[in-house]
Amino acid sequence: MSMNSQTETHRDHGQAMDRMYRFQRHIYDASRRYYLLGRDRLLDRLQPPHEGSILEIGCGTGRNLTSVAARYKHARLFGIDISQEMLKSALATMQRPHGGTPARFACVDATCFNPQLSLGQARFDRIYFSYTLSMIPDWQTALQHAATMLAPNGELHIVDFGQSEALPKSFRKLLFWWLKAFDVSPRADMKRVIEQIAQELDMSIHFEACYSGYAWIVAIKPKIRTENYQF
């Protein structure tokens, strides 16, 4: 794909997200709390170093970063999203009292942004995706790009829809049909791609299929810390 074609694709995706969330963003958190499962479990596991940097890719309304700010009061927070509309909500959300530090945001594409130019930070101690890989068309590139931004001993965390592998086939079929209406596609080969990235980085992967496979929670961590990590 040429650079112009790639730029046009990214712009089209951003515009599509703006159209989708221009009005939805006002009810997004209230409507998603019942089926975006495992988000708080992921946030509990971030455990950044003191004054460490945390980046959320696809930060949406800022719901997760607000929770991160309350959990890790000395962390430095960053968020990106391709939707200008969602970032309006994120900025408003982070202005509310939450007991933590403010976040720095940028409207950029997850697959190709320059973190130093966009956020004033080149590397991050923790990077996470929360139900965003299933919405990013070129999600493999977004994952690989995120891995390049990890600081030494940094960790990459993911929670997203799994394959509902232990749930009835009828439920899985209905769920996937419903998600498709919102341009959401659970990534069947996500674990394989993550394993490849972990191998390239010489890091370990921690994978959990929770809620009968409804959600997958994954972490790529330095091998030196494997023995100290518990699910």
Could you please describe the fold and organization of this structure?
With 231 residues, the chain is of the alpha/beta class. It has a 7-stranded mixed β-sheet, sandwiched between helices. Helix 5 links the parallel strand 2 and strand 3. 39% of the residues are buried. The N terminus is likely disordered.
Summarize model confidence as the mean pLDDT: 85
What is the strand content?
15-25%
Low-pLDDT stretches are: 1-7, 21-31
Number of strands: 7
Proportion in helices: 40-55%
Order of helices and strands: HHHEHEHEHEHEHHEE
Q: Rg from C-alpha positions?
A: 17 Å
Task: Profile the largest sheet.
Answer: 7 strands, mixed
Give a quick summary of the entry.
The protein is an alpha/beta fold and 231 residues long.
Outline the secondary-structure elements.
Layout lengths: L2 H22 L3 H5 L6 H8 L6 E5 L5 H9 L4 E6 L2 H11 L8 E5 L7 H5 L4 E7 L8 H9 L2 E12 L7 H12 L9 H12 L1 E8 L4 E8 L9
Parallel strand pairs: 1-2, 1-4, 2-3, 4-5
Antiparallel strand pairs: 5-7, 6-7
Helix pairs in contact: 3-4, 7-9
